[in-house]
Amino acid sequence: MGRLSALFEPETVAVVGATDREGAVGRAILENLRDGFAGEVVPINPSRDEVLGLECYADMSSAPPTDLAVVVVPPPVVLEAIREIGEAGTKHVVVITAGFSETGGEGAERERELREIAAEYDLNIVGPNSLGIMSTPNGMNATFGPENAREGSISFMSQSGAFITAVLDWANEQEIGFQDVVSLGNKTVLDETDFVEEWGDDPDTDVIIGYLEGIDHGDEFVETAREVTDDTPIVLVKSGRTDAGAQAASSHTGAIAGSERAYEAGLEQAGVIRANSVQELFDYARALSGLPEPDSEGVAVVTNAGGPGVLTTDAVGDSRLRMAQFTDETIDDLTAAMPDEANVYNPIDAIGDADIERFGDALDIALGDPNVGSAVVVSAPTAVLEYDKLAETVIEKREDHDKPVVTCLMGGQRARAAEEVLREFGIPNYFDPARAVSGLDALARFSEIRERTIDDPERFDVDRERAREILDRATRRDDNRLGVESMDLLEAYGIPTPEGEIVDDPDRARDVAESIDGDVVMKIVSPDISHKSDIGGVKVGVADEDVYDAYEDVVARARNYQPDATILGVQIQEMLDLETATETIVGMNRDPQFGPLLLFGLGGIFVEILEDTSVRVAPIGEGEARDMIDEIRAAPLLRGARGREPADVEAVVETVQRLSQLVTDFPAILELDVNPLVAGPDGVQAIDLRLTVDTEEL
Amino acid sequence: MGRLSALFEPETVAVVGATDREGAVGRAILENLRDGFAGEVVPINPSRDEVLGLECYADMSSAPPTDLAVVVVPPPVVLEAIREIGEAGTKHVVVITAGFSETGGEGAERERELREIAAEYDLNIVGPNSLGIMSTPNGMNATFGPENAREGSISFMSQSGAFITAVLDWANEQEIGFQDVVSLGNKTVLDETDFVEEWGDDPDTDVIIGYLEGIDHGDEFVETAREVTDDTPIVLVKSGRTDAGAQAASSHTGAIAGSERAYEAGLEQAGVIRANSVQELFDYARALSGLPEPDSEGVAVVTNAGGPGVLTTDAVGDSRLRMAQFTDETIDDLTAAMPDEANVYNPIDAIGDADIERFGDALDIALGDPNVGSAVVVSAPTAVLEYDKLAETVIEKREDHDKPVVTCLMGGQRARAAEEVLREFGIPNYFDPARAVSGLDALARFSEIRERTIDDPERFDVDRERAREILDRATRRDDNRLGVESMDLLEAYGIPTPEGEIVDDPDRARDVAESIDGDVVMKIVSPDISHKSDIGGVKVGVADEDVYDAYEDVVARARNYQPDATILGVQIQEMLDLETATETIVGMNRDPQFGPLLLFGLGGIFVEILEDTSVRVAPIGEGEARDMIDEIRAAPLLRGARGREPADVEAVVETVQRLSQLVTDFPAILELDVNPLVAGPDGVQAIDLRLTVDTEEL
Q1: From CA B334, how far away is CA B302, in angstroms rounded?
Q2: CATH of the domain at B521
Q3: Do B503 and B409 lie in a common domain?
Q4: Mapping DSSP to helix (H, G, I), strand (E, B) and coil, where does residue A412 land?
Q5: For residue A504, which of A490, A569, B395, B503 is within the disulfide window of CB 3.0 to 4.6 Å?
Q6: In chain B, whose CA is at the least distance from the CA of A167?
Q7: Which residue of B has its CA nearest to A534?
Q8: Are the Cβ atoms of A166 and B381 closer than 8 angstroms?
């Protein structure tokens, strides 16, 4: 039993603002509750003694104790009503009333107060600006919508009330059932994370689905959803995907890793299966709610029609699944059971005159193959095939083998009766082969999610105090940008940097250069100059004897470029052998929802032109760090493609983890770019650094 | 009237093999024709006088003249029957009988003979192994399938008979109508190109759709479809997409540009809109068959529900369309017409209590905006909204403004009646906002196709005779592989190559090197050694005085690597300045269906690891050549990204066209790779060449 169980399983529900006025929301809710709810309904309205045949109370204090209160009073009195609910000891509240933050100004202030009252009385509030909630086992429809839900094992939350109304109307036609339904409204108190947690504990919820426009506390959501998805699949439509690009991002990394990428990474790390449309949402949910997990990725396709069989094979090719390779025994058995013209290799084409028995034999043999994890039955209508009989056979064979089976019984009216039979036994029928395979693909995706191990972030032994002191420089300098002069920040976190020093006179420059083997690299150090090379602020391969002049030149160019630039000195750095090394970039941009978003890519054109980057929400463990490196398209370059010497990928993996620790330890770091991090055969070196610090946070 | 008009509009149809035997195909066809066909049906069967109440004839010669004969006799007598049809002067034949090439052996021989008879009598044959054909205006159902089609403006061909049966059953439920339907069967005589041509001339066909597993003569198809799609959209499902990778490809380019890429390029060049599933096929066809073209890419979204409005906006963002920016006047008009809480910016949210009038006003104002090319009406069910009334309003506003409008009236049963009304006026309703937008997107795609200009391939002034002589070397050498020794082939076609010569003794090597400014590059020339660098067969930056020794060394290494290798000599080539240049690859692989498939990409990792290439079926004009270059992801590198000097892209464009001409002029060239073609600021130079020649074709 979860913390919110009384929200969905109340014995008594008060409707604060109940009325019998035609067209009023307070009437619609009361009617919906009166007509189906198994518990007691208590109308609250100071100006009535009775509403719709139910005894009405003037206020919460005079009413019998209730587990849940649904509030539909007008905005000006809503806060008072909720305070009364708190005083009466009711802990669960659904606020239908609108006119809060969504209207701005006064409404936003009202929402702030609502949050305070909730904290004061420890109230679990859904809404405000909610359509209401439903729970089918006890018949509770505490919404003002025209549709009631059928009972089923899908729990459904939505940030849009209209989305619920639209979906229920359609789902009822399709005979798709729900356990709980929640219209989240403004999410002032309870949000998606609370319901994911609650339904994760609910044995009657097989799948959690949702429509969200935003996730308020991404980090908490990821943590909770990760646990929940060990058992219960979560499928979400997160809309507003394409607006992401509009977000202004102040640093280079930020510009690439926009907010939609944070959602993409965060939801992926959370173990959420993402749907891009209403259709996908239910195509996935139908498979996930009624079928067992496949024990292998091999799919058998059984059909009576070549063309649709090829289409199904294409769809398998597009998915994470693959066509099963049958064992010799399976081939022999199929050959014995099928006519000569049939194709006994996968896809099995039992040909146009296949009757129920032949279809059943083919499916039975295929499901018995150890290489088959799941099956799709695809059929075109023929004179010899009754779809409802075929449905029964499919159900029987599916249960015999306890493997997931979906169907694509193509056609119109004649498929309907069969669909009904199949649905009862948890087998989704799809109109299109591609959609049938997408259902199995969602099952396979959920298996992957369940089986993945997410290792805890390693805690490296670092010098956190020294790092804090370095970051404090920003406060001391009254400039929130730190650059190459703060490379010791990386050293404090165990990230290798080249030998060198920042100096502020040409003599010292020569001394430092002489202490370094070979030629040196010299770079102007100034928070005001970002593109050092462009203005001639970088010199490569400088011999010791040229260092003095080079110093003067670099400083002169910087001054010339921007006379009032703050110049912190010139960096003298050892020359690295870049012939055998690869430039990479590791960056971080703090996302308002998900927190520190790490970015990895190869330097230069790979990030800027090919946009070949990977992102993760920090903190991350070793496995996720390695995945970041392996999933960029250009990864083979690091791994030693085309005769190159492989880079020390493990050192890159470790550096990404150390940076993950740094940005997690210091929320004051708003943005950070190590660009480049040079990866050679014998390790990595961070060559340059830029970061922005929120000095108030330090 | 097309060449095949009598196939779809016959006055008399003979059924050769007509029978009244229960369950026989010959009976099913006769029944289907008898029950609906407006013309005369003539059964042919030597053992009956009458079949199903119709007068039966012994053979074609004794029967009245017929426009079309449908053949259902058994395989052993089918050829004789078709010969009789030819003798009788009937020119159009549908062969239902199976047992041809699809069964191999004897069947394949039968199909060869069928082709001969067709040529002898000039017969237009559909099939064999066909389900039959339909044409709805005259009620002709000459198939043995259980379903008849409703009348409509979609003409439909399919390489799978079962696909037709499945689609018709579903389409009848959805009340989707067809003009002509053809089951292509084995395509021995008539194939997809013939029907595309025929329906392109048919004023009653608004959209051509098809399910194909292959296209037999890709080049002819492209040529025909290009013309047809000036007026009539073609939407195809081409299955077998994911098998492409399995095709063996012998050369480097071939391995990358597999057969699926040829279909992708060929269908794109043909102007075909490709669908990947049955659902997409009809989502597109429904929009294309009933709506006008949009005159701009701006979409207005009108909704009563925020969430679905955001989803629709996402879908527009994913498409080639964009959300329209309303004029100030539109904003003013919407503000005046909508309540305060409504959103008058796009998407227009008329909010939950929007009635028919408000919806109508919003749509009217939006469609009146000059920036709006099309609109989506998205609605959640509410108490104040009757969907059938809303449908009428949408129809009215759409016709007033003559702009395309699609709807997404979300919900189940309540949407059905509205759908029916909308359908009658050509407006498709979709269950899902994403699908509604995909319908508009198909319309916009078709506009693009109609508006594109495909310039004729330029005929460069080349030395074709010299090229032929060079290719003949392959015959003379009895080796179908030519290499760098044939660089003069490129010169004959006006493609620049570096100064240099192939020599076969070290003294001559030194002489050539001395005649070239600066250092030289030396490469072993041998058809047996592909990866010259790997075996030490290439030396870069060789000074004149070292050329003699380098010659000996390169040859020794080659001998050492492969003692029996044919060594044609050593190439001495001028050193190019590669600092400011970019390596590109231009290749060609001859596809069995589409002919010469050109490939372009940047060299090295871009092709091999990032697979960043573009392909086109040759011959191509200047625009297509330029598109090939611009559509690779790394194109900005050539155009001068990141401070590089831009390469001479026009020279690359010209080289691609010249190679297009070369491979078109010489079908004997099976594969060709110019790798690299170095593109610098002042032009291009082809550095290396490999090609394979079919010496029999020369």
Answers
A1: 11
A2: 3.30.1490.20
A3: no
A4: coil
A5: A569
A6: B411
A7: B643
A8: yes
Is position B633 within any domain? no
DSSP state of B149: P
Q: Which of A161, A242, A315 sits opposite B314 (nearest CB)?
A: A242
Domain identity same for B21 and B114: yes
Considering the domain architecture, whether residues A437 and A298 belong to the same structural domain is answered as yes
Q: How many Å apart are CA A676 and CA A498, to the nearest integer?
A: 12
Q: Are residues A432 and A525 in the same domain?
A: no
Q: Provide CB contacts within 8 A for A230, sequence distance 6+.
A: A450
Query: Whole-angstrom Cα distance, residue B126 to residue B99?
Result: 15
Q: Are B303 and B423 part of one and the same domain?
A: yes
pLDDT in tens, A267-297: 999 999 999 999 999 999 999 998 999 999 9
Using alpha carbons only, give the angle A272, A275, A281 rounded to the nearest 5 degrees. 105
**B331 falls within a domain:** yes
Q: Binning pLDDT at 50, 70 and 90, where does residue B240 land?
A: confident
Nearest to B79 by CA among B102, B60, B97, B59: B97
Read off the pLDDT of each residue in A119-148 and give the average, rounded to a whole number.
Answer: 95
- Beta-bridged to residue A140, according to DSSP, are A135
Residues B507, B425, single domain; the answer is no
- pLDDT > 80? residue A461: yes
Q: In what order do the strands lie in the sheet with B150-158?
A: B140-143, B132-135, B177-183, B150-158, B207-212, B234-238, B273-275
Least CB–CB distance from B414: residue in A169, A314, A604: A169
- Best of B168, B302, B609 to disrupt the A interface (most A CBs within 10 Å) is B609
Q: Answer yes or no: is pLDDT of B252 > 80.
A: no
Q: Is the pLDDT of residue B414 over 60?
A: yes
pLDDT band at A244 (very low <50, low <70, confident <90, very high): very low
- Number of structural domains (chain B) is 3
Which of B575, B601, B633 terminates a domain? The answer is B575
CATH number at residue B18: 3.40.50.720
Q: How confident is the model at residue A1 (pLDDT cuts 50, 70, 90)?
A: low
Q: Based on the domain organization, do A522 and A599 belong to the same domain?
A: no
As a whole-number percent, the residues of chain B with pLDDT over 90 amount to 73
Tell whether B317 is within 8 A of chain A (Cβ): yes
Question: Which residue from A241, A381, A643 is facing B169, i.e. has the nearest CB?
Answer: A381
CB-based contact, A343 to chain B, within 8 Å: no
Let me know if residue B556 belongs to a domain: yes
Q: Which residue of A has its CA nearest to B381?
A: A166
| A-interface mutation test, from B610, B631, B642, most A Cβ less than 10 A away | B610
Domain that holds residue B90: 5-205
pLDDT score for A600: 97
Residues 6+ apart with CB under 8 A from B364: B397, B400, B401
Tell me whether B160 touches chain A (CB under 8 Å). yes
Q: Is the pLDDT of residue B346 over 70?
A: yes
Has residue B249 got a pLDDT over 60?
no
Chain CA centroid to CA B535, Å: 42
Average pLDDT over every residue of A659-666: 97
Between chain A and chain B, how many beta carbons pairs sit less than 8 Å apart?
220
Are A278 and B311 inside 8 Å of each other by CB?
yes
Q: Do B277 and A432 touch (CB under 8 A)?
A: yes
How sure is the predictor about A629, in pLDDT bands with cuts at 50, 70 and 90? very high
What local confidence, expressed as pLDDT, does residue B474 receive? 81
The enclosing domain of A644 has a CATH number of 3.30.470.20
Chain B residue numbers with beta carbons less than 8 Å from the beta carbon of A240 are 310, 314
Domain of residue B415, CATH code: 3.40.50.261
Chain B residues with CB under 8 Å of A29 CB are: none
Do the chains contact at A173 and B412, CB–CB below 8 Å? yes
Each residue of B59-82: pLDDT tens digit? 999 999 999 999 999 999 999 999
Instruction: Please say which residue of B190, B205, B220 terminates a domain.
Output: B205
Among residues 469-528 of chain A, which lie with CB inside 8 Å of chain B?
none
Nearest CA in chain A to B611: A633
Whether A155 maps to a domain, the answer reads yes
Residues A515 and A610 in one domain: no
Instruction: Give pLDDT, residue B1.
Output: 54
The torsion region of residue B611 among left (phi > 0), alpha (psi -120 to 50) and beta comes to: left
Question: What's the pLDDT at B257?
Answer: 37
Q: Are the Cβ atoms of A146 and B383 closer than 8 angstroms?
A: yes
Contacts of A425 (CB under 8 A, 6+ apart): A290, A395, A398, A399
